[in-house]
Amino acid sequence: MFKGTQTLKEQVKSNLLNVLLTQPGERVNEPNFGVGLKHYLFEPNVDIDSLNTLINAQINFYIPEISLIDTDINFLEDEHLLFIKITYSINSDNTVDAIQLNFNQ
Q: pLDDT digits over 17-72, tens only?
């Protein structure tokens, strides 16, 4: 059984995970929603700057209740490892939080 979110901080993290993990075209009636991070594991020559721009645009559009502070992306192509850390603040109370995602093949 899924546990619901109880606080704004939990809801923001849930929304952020949804945006980052959803593959574009996967969400009904929202064909542009999502970054699809897992897709990048198998792509040769990932352009980190383009990925960073995409993440920023998706978060700014779909999660306007937060402000991005920093996005740190590391990709080890030979090992198919992707590490992403996103630091943000919640606009309503300026709480700073971060989320770390680690993907491997």
A: 999 999 999 999 999 999 998 887 777 777 889 989 999 999 999 999 999 999 99
CATH (domain of 26): 3.10.450.40
Residue 60 lies in a domain: yes
In which residue are the tokens 């559009």 written? Answer: 61
User: Range of 80's domain?
Assistant: 8-104
| Listed residue (35, 24, 30) closest to 57, CA to CA | 35
Alpha carbon distance 67, 25 (integer Å): 25
Q: Is residue 1 part of a domain?
A: no
Question: pTM of the entire structure?
Answer: 0.85
